[in-house]
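Hi support team,

I've been running sequence recovery on a batch of backbones for a student project. Most finish fine, but this one hangs at about 90% for roughly twenty minutes before it completes. I'm not sure whether the input is malformed or the queue is just slow. I've pasted the structure tokens below so you can try to reproduce it. Let me know if you need the job ID as well.

Thanks,
M.K.
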């Protein structure tokens, strides 16, 4: 049985709560057909209302991100399903990386402005109360660049450093509850390639995603969790990226960064 099937059909047993999560998030075991998968279960009943995301659910947007990534061929998002659980319907996503995800962060840095690490791209200078002026930077890493393209596609409003998890050569990305809004919401720490050409591999992923949207198959999968306007906006973002062929630059009329950054 594949992991997605285990997550969708297995018995869910709660191990404990992730106390630093902004919404209710539970670490669970999912058992099916003599297989056990460790996962994160985010019940809809534990979601806080967000005035700027009035439609749908955070759990539904977690699933939408996984479906979009899978359709295009991005491999950053762990297997995710929407199902019933001990506290009602919610998203269940395979657990990736160590128990403490921040232990895996090595791709994003805060350094003194004069000491930018080699191989890192500066994003913004900040004045911190205890540390003085520092520079936020991220690695010039093709895995991150590909994820940055996916974030543009899903209109990710909250790409923080703690959402990045390295597992050997694999880069995982988690926490996609505030994505896929019809209006521009992109807030990310991954601005290092602003204005640069898109990677060729990601142009291919965008083309596959555009085809899945054009034939209606992906739109049908997304219909239970996104509005029609949100699916149309998704298609428009993909088309614009393909036409322009470059990473966007940070917007001038609103904050381009999440807060906190981690």
């Amino acid at each position: 049985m594949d992991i997605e099937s285990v997550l969708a059909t297995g018995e869910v047993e709660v191990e404990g709560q992730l106390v630093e999560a902004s919404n209710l998030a539970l670490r669970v075991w999912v058992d099916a057909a003599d297989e056990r998968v460790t996962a994160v279960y985010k019940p809809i009943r534990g979601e806080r209302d967000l005035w700027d995301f009035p439609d749908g659910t955070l759990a539904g947007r977690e699933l939408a991100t996984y479906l979009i990534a899978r359709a295009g061929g991005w491999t950053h998002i762990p297997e995710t399903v929407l199902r019933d659980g001990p506290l009602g319907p919610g998203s269940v996503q395979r657990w990736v990386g160590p128990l403490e995800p921040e232990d895996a962060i090595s791709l994003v840095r805060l350094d003194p402005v004069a000491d930018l690490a080699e191989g890192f791209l500066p994003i913004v200078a900040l004045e911190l109360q205890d540390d003085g002026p520092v520079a936020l930077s991220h690695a010039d890493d093709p895995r991150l660049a590909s994820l940055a393209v996916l974030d543009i596609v899903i209109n990710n409003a909250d790409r923080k450093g703690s959402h990045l998890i390295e597992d050997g050569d694999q880069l995982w990305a988690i926490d996609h509850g505030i994505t896929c809004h019809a209006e521009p919401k992109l807030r990310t720490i991954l601005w290092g390639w602003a204005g640069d050409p898109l990677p060729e591999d990601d142009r291919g992923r965008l083309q596959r995603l555009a085809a899945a949207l054009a034939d209606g198959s992906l739109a049908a999968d997304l219909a239970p969790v996104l509005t029609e306007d949100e699916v149309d906006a998704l298609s428009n973002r993909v088309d614009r990226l393909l036409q322009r062929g470059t990473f966007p630059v940070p917007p001038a009329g609103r904050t381009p960064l999440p807060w906190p950054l981690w």
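--
Follow-up from support: It reproduced on our side and the slowdown came from queue contention, not your input. Residues 228-244 form the longest helix (17 residues). No action needed from you.
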